[in-house]
Amino acid sequence: xxxxxxxxxxxxxxxxxxxxxxxxxxxxxRIGFAEWPALKAGDNPVLEFxxxxxxxxxxxxVLSQTKAIMRYLGLQYGYLPTDAYEAYLVDSYLDAFNDLxxxxxxxxxxxxxxxxxEILANWLANTFPKFLTAFEKRLESQGHSKFLVGEKLxxxxxxxxxxxxxxxxxxxxxxxxxxxxxxxxxxxxKEYAHNMKEIFNDYLExxxxxxx
Length: 212
What we know:
There is one protein chain. By secondary structure, the protein is an alpha+beta fold. It has 2 domains: 2-77, Glutaredoxin; 84-201, Glutathione S-transferase Yfyf (Class Pi), Chain A, domain 2 (Up-down Bundle). The chain contains 8 helices and 4 strands, in the order E-H-E-H-E-E-H-H-H-H-H-H. It has helices spanning 13-21, 36-40, 66-77, 84-109, 113-142, 155-167, 176-183, 187-206, and strands at residues 2-6, 27-31, 54-56, 62-64. Strands 2-1-3-4 form a 4-stranded mixed β-sheet, covered by helices on one side. A hairpin with a 5-residue loop joins strand 3 (54-56) and strand 4. Helix 1 (13-21) packs parallel to helix 3 (66-77) and helix 4 runs parallel beside helix 6. The chain is globular. 25% of the residues are buried.
């Protein structure tokens, strides 16, 4: 199969982590931002929504939309819970991650430097700790910090591990030190990050180093 995305971590990174953990061979096709306009111009059958990532399967079918791709791969390789409530928890985590990161993404692409600082400051002071508090409470209720849901890896773990490995535990990220200071005030989440680092260490050490 072939994964198509930019040469950054971004939305494709949890997909890369899942395929790597499942030991699935795939082509990690990375495109430059300068190539993007030409790639999406015209009627490109691979870009159904003129967006990436997309995953081209060996049978020629093309999968679009990050969460849908993750659910497909989770079902294929055993990373989706069969219990209805646990499946709900996984999906609610995925939605929460989107809500958490939306203002951060807005700040990243904001052209006005003062407005960018304002958005980021509000996110750091309010949004980031609010969501971490909710995640911490879930882990406390669950009784362990091995995984986000249940007793095994789910697509929620790939998504959150990708997120924290990029913005919290990434020395090339300009926000890493500040976010780590906040993140590590949550003991369950800190323990969770340590557990995930042990599971994904080989991949994290070998992947291309990028700020985002």
